[in-house]
Amino acid sequence: MNQFKKILIPTDGSEYTKKAIAQGLEIAKLMNAEVTALYVVDQTSFVNFPMDSTVVSIYSLLEKEGQDAVDYVVEEGAKIGVKVTAMLQEGSPVKKIVDVAKDHDLVVMGTIGRTGISKILLGSVAERVVRFAPCPVLVVRSCPKEE
Questions:
Q1: First to last CA, the chain
Q2: Tell me, what's the pLDDT at 119?
Q3: What parts of the chain have a pLDDT lower than 50?
Q4: Of 35, 52, 59, 100, which is most buried by a Cβ count within 10 Å?
Q5: pLDDT on residue 24
Q6: Are 63 and 112 in contact (CB under 8 A)?
Q7: In this structure, what are the phi and psi dihedrals at residue 35, rounded to the nearest 5 degrees?
Q8: Which long-range contacts (CB under 8 A, 24 or more apart) does 25-32 make?
């Protein structure tokens, strides 16, 4: 089995990522690995809007949500003795995750398991990360019915 020394756990702060976070931290504990918790503030949503006070307020809320999301991973890691570094990035989530993954041995991320037309229309960040990541990717499915 490969030794994973640096594990990347992207999070969006939702309930759906908690199962992936727990799995990633458990792997890190077993492998004595370090973890990077990554939240990407998705700027693609704001590209066509002028930077007025409303957009700045929404952006600030997203930054706060991101800080809370990575802090959660740091706290969960501390509970089981895993070192977690928090990282907030701005840009396209897929591009940033793939870029940050270059310095890691494994990516562990969640998905809500969209199917059918929803998947076709919305696509999947996890699916695209699997396709383009330079390292192995473990996708942990979390269905809304499980929560």
A1: 31
A2: 53
A3: 118, 121-122, 146-147
A4: 35
A5: 97
A6: no
A7: -120, 140
A8: 25/73, 25/76, 25/77, 25/80, 25/82, 25/84, 26/80, 27/106, 27/108, 27/138, 28/4, 28/77, 28/82, 29/80, 29/81, 29/82, 31/3, 31/4, 31/5, 31/7, 32/5
**Which pLDDT belongs to residue 58?**
77
Cα–Cα distance between 127 and 4 in angstroms, integer?
Answer: 21
Tokens of 74: 């740091």
- What pLDDT score does 57 carry? 77
What domains, with CATH codes, occur in the chain? 6-146 (3.40.50.12370)
| Residues 59-80: b if buried by 16+ CB within 10 A, e if exposed | beebeeebeebbebbeebbeee
User: How many CA atoms lie less than 13 Å away from 72 in the CB half-sphere?
Assistant: 21
Model confidence, pTM: 0.86
Strand order in the sheet with 137-141: 84-91, 34-42, 6-10, 106-111, 137-141
Answer for the pair 20, 142: CB distance below 8 angstroms, yes or no.
Answer: yes
> What is the token pair recorded at 118?
């929803």
